[in-house]
Amino acid sequence: MSLLDWAVILAYFVGVAGVAWWASRRQDTAEKYFLAGRNVGWFAVGASLFASNIGSEHLVGLAGSGAKSGVAMAH
Q1: Distance CA 74, CA 72 (A)
Q2: Rounded to an integer, what distance in angstroms lies between the CA atom of residue 34 and that of residue 30?
Q3: Residues 6+ apart with CB under 8 A from 75
Q4: Which residues of the chain have pLDDT under 70?
Q5: Domain coordinates of the chain in residue numbers?
């Protein structure tokens, strides 16, 4: 890897740490941190649950099942 690659990786981690630090300053209680102040819509909660449940191994496994057993299994 070149110096530019390492610089991009470092900038990414610094950016993520900066966003985490900025977000942590806005929450003053654990309830606001873990429950977003109870002010999040149903679509955001559903999308978060779906995204955390579906991983790359799940998608690859479904593609393999679809190839082996047919599209009905993959659907």
Answers
A1: 6
A2: 6
A3: 66
A4: 73-75
A5: 1-37, 40-75
